[in-house]
């Protein structure tokens, strides 16, 4: 096991964590502020990726297509909130789960009708399609470096937005005590729509950025949504800081586990057992992490509510 | 977009109309396949291939008016069982065709045996039904599941590759793939990496591959897993140093469409290819691309062969499909012109067929699979000797 391999896997963990953060940030805002479980979050991510892929094919330019896709997806998200999801805030969580699960199924079939059953092509921009050499003997995918950069930029931007602006103050007020914020005269309806739009925009960023490394296809949102839920449970619901820390923890633990556990087991177990046990343990590691966090800090690492 | 939605609605209502008509003296086929979810592409392609042959025969199978009832197994064994029960008990189909995955076949098969209904799997041929538990009610038009991996193992062995790394999902078919590979590949296995099913990110595995420096990487990653891995592998800059080898379905039309140039150069093994030079295949490819206006896929080819096999068998018994023994004999005879060329059933009802080496190449702006060699001529699976059917 060389130092280069360890460095590369750390970088991978960072990148996977930031990629989860893009999704978890939107999810945690919606969950924390509106007290609403939105299973359709993954569907918005899917729609964002499809729109980005379509626009990239139409315009031929990554730089033009991605902002357009973000705007379009945010608009779709806000439309969904105004027309449908708004009715669900007062209902209990079970109703919300059922209703948003229905939206998820409808979204999958709609995407299939519009774009067909075959996965879409969404490739990296030409300039970033190959690896770059970070130092001799260590090259790394340049596109993944871009994901790291975008993830960090979004984290900084969200921090600034939530901690330093008036809207951010309202968002924090809404997250920690919704009734009191309403009583103080905050236009909660408008605030919710805006927050939902921001969440949808983050989904589109995630969809457009991850499209080139993942399959753009029907159902792509579901597998990653589960991870995003794990992240916000670990981080504390409603907290952006929690989402960031949770994402990085999950990303690191998952990547390091997958990379090094099978190797570790091979050292002291017979190969047949090790090849069975290694992947099995690696794949449950993040859930063990979640269980441990819930045991010691049931509210998550950074609870938004006091 | 609205045109397509309208078209879908129109088709759906047309399908309902067809279902409600019910006359005697016809061939009723329950086409049970994966139509929805991430794997929905496979089933819909197979269905289109199946329907194409029925259409080319003037809406008939073996001279009988054909009725094809499509049911979705949702890639879920429980849903598949329910759908099969509905097809057998309520619709009283003569035969179930179309299955893609081994787990679906194994879930549905006992019920069909109990109800003496034949099953023709379009793709899957699980090893459980190939050896001592081989079944008089089951036929696979696709392959015995280990075969394409055995073919890749043979090719790597013949090519003199000495150090291979394998990457498959941690589930039974994944382990079977590695077992199939190692049955014919005798060189060193640098590492066997097992991933979690539907894993999205492969950076950790790609790091391991880079560190292990194998001569070749063998993959069996169905659906989205394959797309994700191939894209990320190319972006990591490994594709040109360590070539990818694998299962033909990992390099089919859907994958090519999703990953584009990233996959050019990869080697894969399959029993069919678009460019196979035989009359049946030429007619099929031309008719398919004219009818549906998109490039043909292996799933569609096998769906078409499924229909051709049933067509020939019904013809041979003069439409008397109620005589199950005679129909079974006619199915076993398999007197149809397969788009793969030669096709026979082994005693365990798994195909004896040729496996080709294909490479993904770019011709003009088209990216396609091209046959560059034959790996196995008339290959038989290794389980047939344990089967006591004669």
How does this model look, in words?
The complex is a heterodimer of chains A (306) and B (390). The N and C termini of chain A lie far apart (45 Å). The longest helix of chain A is centred in the first third of the chain and has 32 residues. The model of chain A has no long low-confidence stretch (mean pLDDT 87). The relative contact order of chain A is 0.19. Chain A has 306 residues and is an all-alpha fold. Chain A has 11 helices and 2 strands, in the order ααααββααααααα. In chain A, a hairpin with a 2-residue loop joins strand 1 and strand 2. Chain B is of the alpha/beta class and 390 residues long. Helices cover 41% and strands 22% of the residues of chain B. Chain B is globular. In chain B, strand 12 and strand 13 form a beta hairpin. In chain B, the strands form 2 sheets. In chain B, strands 7, 8, 9, 10, 11, 12, 13 and 14 form an 8-stranded mixed sheet that branches. In chain B, helix 2 crosses helix 10 and helix 2 packs across helix 11. The N and C termini of chain B lie far apart (54 Å). Chains A and B meet through helix 1, helix 4, strand 2, helix 9 and helix 10 of A and helix 1, helix 2, strand 8, helix 7 and helix 8 of B.
């Amino acid at each position: 096991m060389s130092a280069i391999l360890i460095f590369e896997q750390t970088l991978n963990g960072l990148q996977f964590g930031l990629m989860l953060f893009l999704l978890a940030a939107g999810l945690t805002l919606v969950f924390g502020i509106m007290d609403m479980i939105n299973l359709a979050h993954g569907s918005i991510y899917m729609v964002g990726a499809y729109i980005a892929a379509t626009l990239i094919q139409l315009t031929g330019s990554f730089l033009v297509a991605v902002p357009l896709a973000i705007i379009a997806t945010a608009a779709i998200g806000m439309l969904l909130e105004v027309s449908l999801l708004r009715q669900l805030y007062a209902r209990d969580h079970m109703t919300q789960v059922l209703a948003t699960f229905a939206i998820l199924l409808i979204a999958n079939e709609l995407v299939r009708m519009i774009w067909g059953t075959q996965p879409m092509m969404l490739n990296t921009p030409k300039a970033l399609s190959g690896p770059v050499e970070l130092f001799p003997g260590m090259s790394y995918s340049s596109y993944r470096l871009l994901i790291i950069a975008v993830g960090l930029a979004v984290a900084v931007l969200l921090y600034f937005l939530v901690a330093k602006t008036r809207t951010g103050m309202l968002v924090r007020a809404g997250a920690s005590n919704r009734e009191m914020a309403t009583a103080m005269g905050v236009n909660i309806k408008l605030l919710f729509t805006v927050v939902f739009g921001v969440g949808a925009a983050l989904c589109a960023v995630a969809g457009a950025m991850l499209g080139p490394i993942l399959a753009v296809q029907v159902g792509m949102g579901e597998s990653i949504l589960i991870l995003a839920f794990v992240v916000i449970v670990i981080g504390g619901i409603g907290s952006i800081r929690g989402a960031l820390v949770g994402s990085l923890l999950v990303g690191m633990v998952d990547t390091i586990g997958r990379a090094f556990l099978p190797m570790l087991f091979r050292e002291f177990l017979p190969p047949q057992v090790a090849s069975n046990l290694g992947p099995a343990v690696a794949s449950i590691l993040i859930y063990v992490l979640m269980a441990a966090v819930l045991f010691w800090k049931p509210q998550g690492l950074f609870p938004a509510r006091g | 977009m609205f045109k397509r939605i309208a078209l879908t609605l129109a088709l759906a209502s047309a399908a309902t109309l067809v279902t409600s008509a019910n006359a005697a003296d016809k061939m009723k086929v329950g086409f049970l396949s994966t139509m929805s979810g991430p794997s929905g592409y496979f089933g819909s392609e197979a269905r289109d291939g199946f329907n194409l042959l029925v259409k080319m025969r003037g809406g008939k199978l073996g001279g009988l008016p054909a009725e094809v009832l499509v049911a979705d197994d949702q890639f879920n064994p429980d849903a598949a069982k329910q759908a099969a029960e509905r097809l057998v008990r309520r619709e009283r189909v003569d035969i179930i065709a179309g299955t893609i995955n081994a787990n679906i076949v194994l879930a549905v098969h006992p019920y069909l045996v109990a109800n003496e209904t034949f099953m023709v799997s379009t793709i899957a041929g699980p090893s459980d039904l190939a050896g001592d538990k081989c079944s008089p009610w089951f036929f696979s038009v696709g392959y015995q599941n280990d075969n394409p991996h055995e073919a890749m193992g043979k090719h790597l062995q013949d090519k003199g590759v000495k150090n291979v790394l394998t990457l498959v999902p941690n589930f039974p078919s994944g382990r079977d793939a590695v077992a199939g590979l190692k049955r014919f590949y005798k060189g060193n296995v640098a590492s066997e990496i097992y991933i979690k099913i539907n894993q999205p990110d492969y950076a950790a595995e790609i790091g391991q591959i880079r560190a292990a420096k194998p001569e070749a990487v063998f993959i069996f990653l169905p659906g989205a897993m394959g797309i994700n891995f191939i894209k990320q592998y190319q972006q990591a800059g490994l594709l040109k140093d360590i070539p990818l080898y694998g299962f033909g379905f990992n390099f089919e039309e859907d994958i090519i469409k999703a990953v584009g140039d990233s996959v050019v150069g990869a080697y894969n093994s399959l029993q069919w290819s678009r460019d196979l030079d035989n009359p049946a295949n030429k007619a099929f490819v031309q008719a398919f691309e004219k009818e549906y206006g998109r490039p043909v896929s292996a799933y569609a080819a096998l769906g078409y062969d499924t229909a051709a096999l049933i067509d020939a068998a019904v013809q041979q018994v003069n439409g008397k499909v109620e005589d199950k023994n005679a129909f079974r004999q006619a199915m076993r005879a398999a007197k149809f012109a397969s788009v793969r060329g030669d096709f026979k059933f082994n005693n365990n009802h798994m195909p004896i067929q040729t496996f080709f080496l294909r490479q993904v190449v770019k011709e003009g702006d088209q990216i396609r699979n091209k046959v560059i060699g034959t790996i196995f001529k008339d290959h038989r699976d290794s389980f047939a000797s344990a089967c006591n059917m004669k």
